[in-house]
Specification:
Blueprint: E1 3-6, H1 12-23, H2 31-34, H3 36-39, E2 47-50, E3 56-69, E4 73-85, H4 94-108, E5 113-116, H5 121-124, E6 133-140, E7 154-157, E8 160-164, H6 170-178, E9 183-184, H7 188-197, H8 199-204, E10 207-215, E11 218-227, H9 229-236, E12 253-260, H10 262-275, E13 280-286, H11 290-298, E14 302-307, E15 311-314, H12 317-323, E16 336-338, E17 344-346, E18 352-353, H13 355-363
Parallel strand pairs: 4-5, 12-13
Antiparallel strand pairs: 1-2, 2-3, 3-4, 3-9, 5-15, 6-13, 6-14, 7-8, 8-10, 10-11, 11-12, 16-17, 17-18
Length: 391
């Protein structure tokens, strides 16, 4: 008989080893290195399916977080990842049972949002769906940056200079992170843990760097960026990256996270291709960062509209609306009504909204607004889950 339950501390090593065997066989760093919030001892949130002999047959990782939304509201959330079943136990429905337990766990924790780094039918059958949109900015090297990597401090704009971050910069970087109106809330130590883990960069097969921009007042912006490994090595050794470097991954250099006011952040990101000698750099910009999007477009970035990464399961829509109430000038009940079964209705017309319709209304600013939803009922801005907090 299979047992489904929370993992115990002594079982985390087995979970990490099983995860490595499925996702990163003979690849460094390990899953435990990349995802300490799933595999390090602490208050464990993750679930496993165990055989009668006590062997871990399937695993579903959960990590909790608090989201600061629009500078006002605070939402509780979980992120799900490292979902796997050992090959010899596949086809027995273990993942479905674990998913039910994880959803119940989030509901008991009063966390109405579950970010999922996947779009399998396992998730969509439970109600998970695509959510919201972002802009992808593509920047290209525009000048001969032959001296960029040989100098530890390279001009980005007349009043801003770029350099690689040092350990002593962590508190300043954390302060800039906290200035983002919409973000995963994080302590300075927690931010340092995530920077060290470099989870999403490793998933992309890229090496992680943190670059800061300084002005006369100190650190003005930062960007966490994934680049080909030879480029990171060259930058860290203050040598010039070769223009003949062939990346070992098909993924382009990518900005994973950023912080600072829009102008300084735009100056920093715009200068990164030259500073790192990158032919191309991609940046995903959540829809609410419209000022940054506009500034980068003015600087020549190519913009594309994309879906947010992964899927989102709203486990309790009423609770989500109650936690997000500070976003709107009027009570949310004047826009939507939620019945005891979780069905959603437009308040003024009493018309029931489909899941697709209320997901679009709640998370996507480009979704055609139904005529019976008031204009003041703005979409809920969410941070990018495919960044430093990727699970």
């Amino acid at each position: 008989m299979t047992t489904f339950r929370l993992l115990e501390t002594r079982e985390l090593t087995d979970a990490a080893q099983l995860s490595n065997s499925v996702f990163r066989p003979d690849i460094q760093p390990t899953m435990a290195d990349m995802f300490p919030r799933l595999f390090a001892p602490g208050v464990i949130q993750s679930y496993g399916a165990f055989t009668e002999e006590g062997t871990l047959a399937a695993f579903m990782g959960l990590a909790p977080s608090t989201l600061r939304i629009g500078g006002a509201a605070s939402l509780r959330a979980f992120s799900m990842g490292s979902v796997l079943t050992a090959p010899e136990h596949r086809g027995a429905g273990l993942a479905g049972e674990l998913l039910n337990l994880c959803i119940a766990h989030t509901q008991k924790a009063e966390a109405p949002l579950l970010f999922i780094s996947g779009e399998r039918s396992l998730y969509t059958r439970a109600g998970s769906a695509y959510f919201g949109r972002a802009a992808k900015a593509i920047l290209r090297r525009s000048i001969d940056a032959s001296s960029a990597a040989t100098d530890s401090s390279v001009p980005a704009q007349p009043s801003v200079r770029l350099r690689l971050a040092e350990p002593q910069d962590l508190l300043h970087v954390h302060h800039l992170h906290e200035l983002n109106d919409t973000r995963f809330e994080e302590s300075a130590a927690g931010l340092g843990e995530l920077l060290g883990a470099a989870a999403y960069c490793n998933v992309l097969g890229l090496a992680q760097l943190t670059v800061v921009a300084e002005n006369q007042n100190g650190l003005a912006a930062y960007a966490v960026i994934g680049v080909p490994h030879p480029i990171r090595s060259a930058l860290q050794s203050s040598s010039m990256p070769s223009s003949e470097i062939q990346p070992e991954t098909s993924n382009p250099a990518t900005v994973i996270s950023y912080g600072g006011d829009a102008q300084n952040t735009a100056n920093l990101i715009h200068a990164l291709p030259d500073f790192c000698r990158l032919d191309e750099l991609h940046v995903e910009i959540p829809w609410q960062d419209q000022a940054l999007e506009t500034l980068l477009e003015q600087k020549g970035a190519e913009l594309q509209s994309i879906r947010n990464g992964g899927t989102l399961l709203v486990t309790d829509i009423r609770l989500m609306l109650e936690q997000a109430y500070d976003l709107w000038p009027l009570p949310w009940e004047e826009a939507l009504r939620v019945d005891a079964d979780g069905r959603v209705f437009a308040t003024t017309s009493n018309r029931e909204l489909s899941r697709t319709e209320w997901y679009g209304t709640l998370f996507d600013p480009n979704y055609p607004r139904p005529g019976d939803i008031p204009i003041w009922f703005d979409p809920i801005p969410l941070p990018n889950p495919y960044g430093l907090h990727y699970i």
